[in-house]
What does this fold into?
Amino acid sequence: MTEDLVALRRTLLAEGLDEDADAHSSLGRGLPSRLTPRPSELPAARLATTADSDYVLDYVLGEGGMATVWLARQRALSREVAIKRAHSPSESGGRQLLHEAVITGQLEHPNIVPVHAVVHDAEGPAVVMKRVSGRTWDELIDLREPLERHIEIALQVCQACAFAHSRGVLHRDIKPDNVMIGDFGEVYLLDWGVALRMEDGEVAKLAGTPAYMAPEMTRARCDVRSDVFLLGASLHHAVTGEPRHRGSTMLEAVAAAMRCVPYVYGPEVPPELAAILSKACARDPDARYATVSELRAALLAFREHRAASRLVALGRARAQQLAELATDPQRADYSRAQALFTETRFAFEQAREIWPEHPDANEGHSAVVGQMVRFELALDHVDAALALFESLPPGSRARDELVEQVEARRLQNLERASRAMALERDQDRTFGAAQRTRAALVLAAGVLVLTLGLFVQRLDRPAFQPTTERLALVGAGVLAVMSVVIFAWRRRGAFNLVNLRIAQICLGTLTLSLLQRITGHLAHSSPAAVLLTDAFLLTGGGLALSVFHRGGPGLAALSLGVAFVGALQPAIIDELFIGLSVAVPVGALALAWYSRRAAR
It folds into this structure.
């Protein structure tokens, strides 16, 4: 047997403690405060089972090492209360009870059972308290409640203990058996029988429960950090299902508390919680949390981190479902994929909001966005993919993996958009309308100048008949004017496919007209036959032009009219042609003037 163990056995014997007693029994009773009143100073009251008593005792709720707790009814207020009185009516037993009552009565806190009154009768002092019904934390541990439940209980106990410390009181016997959980979730830290005011200084007796006590408490020393250890040891019991110090007897448990060997937690305990418990239950008080509030802050952070980790796990599960859909994007349910992506991204974003430094939340968020970018690209939803890609943070792995693919598709999309714009521009009849109108006016003026000479000559010589050679020369002149006008028009740059087709139709029609006039001259055809063919050529040109220009139908109708009338009256076909050549330019000039006036 080591010297420490021998000294420990002597200490237990000196304090009258049985070394073979239960390791879960509380030590250190009978520590009255200098402010504890004497029993004889208390107000008298009648405590009995009779109906005329001030407090009508009903039945025993429980028994402890020094006192019995009764359920009673307070007649004056007609309410149920709990009455605690010492087993022994001696003055020492009464002072032990009053010590706890005075300490508890000065700690008004939601997690500490309030004391209503302290009275006495022939059997000695009694403490009247709020009646609390429920289960002890120890019972909930046996029921294997979820970890979140135990964390919430520990947080509430931390609140009670931190409040007591702020009032200069150490509990010294925090354990699951001294924590009551009410029927409606209220949590109470009980049994302040060995509580000590910090101002009273150190005591020379052991106090606390061996299975949970801090190492320094085995040497009758304690401070705020000792209560931190007790809280950590209580939560350790809730998490692992066994006390922090194991021993079949009091001596073995106190010896284990003295050694306080570090505990190695299994994989079933979250690593962050294991680190919190190890720090709270460190053998060296300086290595523990300095205050109960620091321990509580660590537990709050763990609870938030645990919630964030659950969200990350949910996000991963949804991401896996999305990955299965993405194996065949063309056959996948797109609305289902969108819903899965929204749920996944929301889970990771919520996890990041709760715990910004979560090691997996940021990476998971970037990964699922990258996954959806690939899905959208596979469906050729380039705009949607680009928008998602831009939301990826610079430097993330998902962004680096996708940058080349996205850039290639971006350029492809720009090229496609450029082609679509070019096609739209080519099919736009309004494109270059102003330049086209000016070109038409110049052409109309030129044709009108050429035609007016013929018109004047016809007025001066009504019987004049043109030759096929002259018709060919006039056709060549009109074609030359048309070519110059179109060349100048195209150099202006406002030229699309519609304008090109208009120019091609005009040049093609006039070129065919010139060729057929030359052919008619060479074949010695009559001028009337040549002009009749010309009229049909102009009709075809007008019909072709009507697809691209509103003047096409008018030209076709006039030319067809000239052709029919000329076929019936060949003698006047030349006059008809001259009239057509004058009417078309004059009509074009009149239309331009009217349009400009309407615009003004």
Remarks:
- Residues 292-326 form the longest helix (35 residues).
- The chain has four domains: 24-131, 135-290, 304-424, 433-599.
